[in-house]
Amino acid sequence: MIRMSTGRRAYDMLRGYVNQEWERIRGVDDKDAETELRESMSISAIRVERTEVTTREATPEESRSWAMKILGIAEASDFTEIRKAFERLNTRSDPANFPAGSPEAKQAGEIQAKVRQAYSILTDEMDSTEKRFKSLEID
């Protein structure tokens, strides 16, 4: 019987978690790209002589919806739920948990960047005093 060290088991669990979150977040981005493609195809009656790649700014509603999907929270979530989801995802997807330069570390870094961007989108419109006091943890 081969025994696995505790450190190796923890590493394998984190690697599995990062891969799972990577697929979920990549799926959110793919769905948005799919929607944009369908919308652009429905407007295909407009012919353009020269095609240029342009990026359109997402509306605040689209950004908020994307951020909620990334954090995996419901529409009516309050600051406490947003913060807990952010902390859980941010901690688990820390690239320092993986060997430097590994594919898992790269994926974890990308997940962490998206999680931080989503948290920023959802908390930017909140009152700074409310965020500061609700972030306090008093036992």
Topology:
Layout: H1 6-42, H2 60-71, H3 79-92, H4 103-123, H5 128-134
Helix pairs in contact: 1-4, 2-4, 3-4
Summarize the structure.
With 139 residues, the protein is mainly alpha-helical.
Could you characterize what this model shows?
Helices cover 65% and strands 0% of the residues. By secondary structure, the chain is an all-alpha fold. The chain has one domain (6-134). It is globular and about 50 Å long.
| Chain-averaged pLDDT | 76
Please count the beta strands (DSSP E, at least 2 residues each): 0
Low-confidence stretches: 40-54
Task: Please identify the structural class as seen in this structure.
Answer: mainly alpha
Sketch the major β-sheet: none
> What is the CA–CA distance across the termini?
45 Å
Please state the CA-atom Rg, rounded to the nearest Å: 19 Å
Portion of residues within helices: 55-70%
**Separate helix tally:** 5
User: How large a portion of the residues is in β-strands, by DSSP E?
Assistant: under 5%
Total individual domains: 1
Shape: globular
Q: Helix and strand string, N-terminal first?
A: HHHHH
Task: Name its key features.
5 helices, 0% strand, 139 residues, 65% helix
